[in-house]
Structure formats: structure tokens, C-alpha cells
Design a protein that fits this description.
- The protein folds into 2 domains: about 160 residues, no CATH class; about 200 residues, no CATH class.
- Helix content is about 70%, strand content about 0%.
- It has 11 helices and no strands.
- Helix 7 crosses helix 11.
- The longest helix has 29 residues.
- The protein is globular.
- The relative contact order is 0.15.
Length: about 350
């Protein structure tokens, strides 16, 4: 009884924080321009951006600042100016002030066509990772295995990122880039937090496991935000490294309900905003249901506490991503749509990770 009561309390706290994330984002006036100066990597793994990572610092590759990012369709070879705040503000306004109310990506059909391919690739990586993990005779071998598995997911993330970029307009790609900067900072800080704990011989393994999970989850986020498009005919069991469970069935049923909401969506701005808000609520309820089940499986308070700390960190990151999405657009309607779409995809990806 005591355990059940504690689970209810913890889920309630997490649920409140999830709600506060959206509320905080809606009131925030934080600018995204300061994120442009953050060091990052096209391959999500340079020494500048992930100093404390177990695996990510092994490859010093092309930095994100070397990417060509145009904020004007007539200046395809221009770079984002990160040294002048007034220019940054102008660039941001130029790229978005013309965003008439449009909630669909320009090349959504081409992006959606990639979904089956990436589901197959995700499944193949999961199978290969499971085969690699079978040989875990020592800590050193497990670290080596972790490096291999991380490389699989990191390479897949870079490939997915590039395929998505190829199908985005300039403004759409800038939005993706802003999100990536925030995510790399989140991964760096999360791994650093583990590194600062006194975990003894398990420290390196825990750092590596965190990097693998976050990189895998980022692949899933990009999949849900850019490729999924509420296509309920896709076989999402390929995202799991265990056999499909009742939880996945629930996920798919929730997906069908969300899809119906979107199909019934009106055409005026407020109706569209309200629909995305409703879909966000649907997925928030689903992840809270999964939290209850996960917490109910823990046999000691220490595991429970570590899980809650990790999820609170994710919720704070989600809040920052929502701030970022909302701050990218100028009109109130697009601000609302952006924050809900990001929140929905983040929640979908996190829910799948929790089902593993």
C-alpha cells in the first residue's frame, strides 16, 4: 500500500512538472539567438560540445558552425552571423515574419516516405546492438561494446539529420538547427552529471549507457517530428528492443485517437491550435500512464529516486525545447502550434524509450 501511494505521489509530481513545462514556455520571452553561439557538431560528437562524454568526444568532426545556413532564400551561401545581436534578430525575423499560418512542412510527403526505411534501419541497429551486448565478459569489454553501439546510433542520427535537412526549406532547417543546439547541450550536461557522481567502476558504463539512450531517443524524436506524420499504418514495434507488449498496443491506440483529432481539425487558426493542444494532452496522459507502470516495477527507493531525477531532468529539457520552438515564430498562432508539435514528438519518443 505504501509503495502504491508513493507511486501515485511521484506520478502526480511528474505530471505537474510536465504541465508546468508547457505553461512556462507559453509565458517565456526567452530569445533563441544566444543558442547560435553554442559550439556543436554536425556529427553530434566533437570535442568542444561534449567534453565529458564517454563516447561522444572520440570523433573530432565538422562543426555545425561550418554548415551553410541561409536566412534569406536569395542568399543560399550566407552564414548565420553569431557576433551581432541585431543581425541575429533581423535574421530570425526575416526567416519567419513571412510564416503565414502553415502547420505542415513543405516537403512532408517526401519526409513521410522515409519513415518505413528508418523503421527498418532502427530495427536492424537494435538487433545488431543486442548481438554486440551478448559478449560482455568484463567491464572493459562492456565499454568497448558500448562504443560500438553508440557509433551505430550516432551514425544513424547523422544520416537521419542529413536526410531531413535535404527536404527542409531554409527556415525549416534553421528551426531544426536551433533544436539540435539545445539537445547537444542537454546531452553534454546529462553526461557531466553522471561523471560527477561517485559511481566507482560503474561510472564509465553509466556514462556510456546514458549517451546511447539519449542518441537513440534523439533519432526517435526526429522520426516522430519529421517522418511519422501520424501514420498509424507504420509498424512501431520496430522501435522496441523487446517483443511488442500491451504498452505498445496502448501507444498505437493513443496514436489512432490523436490522428482522428487531427483529421477532424477545423480550418481556422484557433481550431487548429486547440486541436494540437488536445493532442498534446492525449500524449501527456499516455506518458503519465507509462510512468505509473514503470514506477510500480521498482523494488527499492534508490532506483525510484534515480528514475525520478532523470525524468525531471528530461522534463526541464523539454521545457527548454518548447521555449525554443515558441520563440522561433512571430505570430501567436504559430508559436502555439510549434510548442505543441515539439512537445508531442518529444513525449512520443520518451514514451517509446520508457517502454524498452
Amino acid at each position: 500500500m505504501k509503495k502504491g501511494f508513493l507511486t501515485i505521489i511521484v506520478v502526480a509530481v511528474i505530471g505537474i512538472l510536465l504541465g508546468m513545462g508547457i505553461e512556462a514556455a507559453s509565458k517565456s520571452g526567452n530569445s533563441i539567438n544566444n543558442l547560435l553561439t553554442a559550439p556543436t557538431s554536425k556529427n553530434h560528437s566533437n570535442n568542444n560540445s561534449i567534453d565529458n562524454s564517454m563516447y561522444g568526444s572520440s570523433n573530432g568532426l565538422e562543426t555545425e558552425s561550418n554548415r551553410v545556413v541561409s536566412t534569406n532564400s536569395n542568399e543560399d551561401n550566407s552564414y548565420v552571423n553569431t557576433n551581432n545581436n541585431s543581425n541575429n534578430n533581423t535574421n530570425n525575423n526575416d526567416s519567419n515574419s513571412g510564416d503565414s499560418f502553415n502547420v505542415t512542412l513543405q516537403n512532408q510527403a517526401a519526409l513521410s516516405a522515409l519513415a518505413p526505411q528508418y523503421l527498418d534501419e532502427f530495427q536492424n541497429i537494435i538487433i545488431e546492438a543486442n548481438n554486440i551486448s551478448r559478449n560482455s565478459s568484463s567491464d572493459a569489454q562492456m565499454c568497448k561494446n558500448g562504443q560500438q553501439i553508440y557509433n551505430l546510433w550516432n551514425n544513424e542520427l547523422n544520416k537521419l539529420y542529413d536526410n531531413i535537412e535535404e527536404n527542409l526549406t531554409t527556415s525549416e532547417f534553421n528551426f531544426l538547427k536551433y533544436q539540435e543546439l539545445q539537445w547537444i547541450s542537454y546531452r553534454k550536461n546529462s553526461v557531466a552529471a553522471i561523471a560527477n557522481q561517485n559511481l566507482g567502476s560503474m561510472k564509465a558504463l553509466d556514462e556510456g549507457s546514458a549517451e546511447i539512450e539519449m542518441t537513440k531517443e534523439r533519432c526517435y524524436y526526429l522520426f516522430f517530428y519529421y517522418l511519422y506524420d501520424n501514420n498509424t499504418s507504420l509498424d512501431l514495434s520496430k522501435l522496441l528492443d523487446v517483443k511488442p507488449t500491451a504498452n505498445l498496443k496502448n501507444f498505437e491506440e493513443v496514436g489512432a485517437i490523436a490522428r482522428q483529432e487531427l483529421l477532424n481539425m477545423g480550418t481556422n487558426e484557433q481550431s487548429i491550435v486547440d486541436t494540437y493542444a488536445n493532442v498534446n494532452d492525449i500524449w501527456t496522459k499516455e506518458i503519465n500512464n507509462v510512468y505509473r507502470q514503470v514506477l510500480g516495477q521498482f523494488v527499492n527507493d534508490n532506483t525510484n529516486t534515480e528514475f525520478v531525477k532523470r525524468e525531471i531532468s528530461w522534463i526541464n529539457y523539454k521545457s527548454n525545447e518548447i521555449n525554443l520552438a515558441e520563440g522561433y515564430y512571430n505570430t501567436n498562432a504559430m508559436k502555439s502550434i510549434a510548442k505543441y508539435k515539439v512537445s508531442i514528438a518529444l513525449t512520443q519518443a520518451r514514451t517509446i524509450i520508457l517502454l524498452l
